[in-house]
């Protein structure tokens, strides 16, 4: 079963409070999402493998560590996931960025894939799929389906706010994908919005309605 990590770091919880606040404007909202994504990424990468190398300091040659192992890929779910990418690249600028675009079919209400662009070496990368919200879980499940169909084998999911219903849907569909969440909320309302949530993340990031 997939593990669920809910971050309790004081800085993350502090910033999530202002992200939730309806009076936080677009500019500050974007900056806060960036900052929280950076802080979450710091924790998510804690188990990345290292290898020892020699480095010449101004004093002498020293043994030190650099990242080893598989390369990293970041995959935002369009459109709101884009708002988290820069915060991640602040820490790991060499990461490749793919994209998955989904829309909801008005009749079936199921997610439909309309765009997928991934790095060419999919099988050799560790992927982190990012989206600010995990509500019903439909989009996240479909996005990870898309990656797996194309050969991805090592995937994590990162979001700011999640509903228990979305977490459950992800665990059922993708029990091998660990989830990293800044805030686990109470429930979904009758319209499928997370309660208390933060509203529509895409609209708040891009100033649309």
From TrEMBL:
Its cofactor is Mg(2+). Allosterically activated by GTP. Uracil binds at residues 194, 199-201. 5-phospho-alpha-D-ribose 1-diphosphate binds at residues 79, 104, 131-139, 200. One of its GO terms (cellular component) is cytoplasm. Pfam families: UPRTase. It catalyses: UMP + diphosphate = 5-phospho-alpha-D-ribose 1-diphosphate + uracil. InterPro entries: PRTase-like, PRTase_dom, Upp_B, UPRT, UPRTase/APRTase. It is an enzyme of class 2 (transferase). Residues 6-208 form the Phosphoribosyltransferase domain. Keywords: Allosteric enzyme, Glycosyltransferase, GTP-binding, Magnesium, Nucleotide-binding, Transferase. Binds 1 Mg(2+) ion per subunit. The magnesium is bound as Mg-PRPP. Pathway: Pyrimidine metabolism; UMP biosynthesis via salvage pathway; UMP from uracil: step 1/1. GO terms for molecular function: GTP binding; magnesium ion binding; uracil phosphoribosyltransferase activity. One of its GO terms (biological process) is UMP salvage. Belongs to the UPRTase family. This is Uracil phosphoribosyltransferase. It comes from Lederbergia lenta. The gene is upp.
């Amino acid at each position: 079963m997939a593990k669920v990590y809910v971050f309790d770091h004081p800085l993350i919880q502090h910033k999530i409070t202002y992200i939730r606040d309806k009076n936080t404007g677009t500019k500050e909202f974007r900056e806060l999402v960036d900052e929280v994504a950076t802080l979450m990424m710091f924790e998510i990468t804690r188990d990345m493998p290292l290898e020892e190398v020699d480095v010449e300091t101004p004093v002498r040659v020293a043994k030190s560590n650099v990242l080893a192992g598989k390369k990293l890929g970041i995959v935002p779910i369009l459109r709101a996931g884009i708002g988290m990418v820069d915060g991640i690249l602040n820490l790991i600028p060499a990461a490749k960025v793919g994209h998955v675009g989904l829309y909801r079919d008005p009749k079936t209400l199921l997610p439909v894939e309309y765009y997928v662009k991934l790095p060419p070496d999919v099988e050799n990368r560790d992927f982190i799929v990012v989206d600010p919200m995990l509500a019903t879980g439909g989009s996240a499940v479909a996005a990870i389906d898309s990656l797996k169909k194309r050969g991805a084998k090592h995937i994590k999911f990162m979001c700011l706010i999640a509903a228990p219903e979305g977490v459950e849907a992800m665990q059922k569909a993708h029990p091998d994908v660990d989830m990293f969440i800044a805030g686990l909320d109470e429930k979904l309302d009758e319209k499928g919005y997370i309660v208390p949530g933060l509203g529509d993340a895409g609209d708040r990031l891009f100033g649309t309605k």
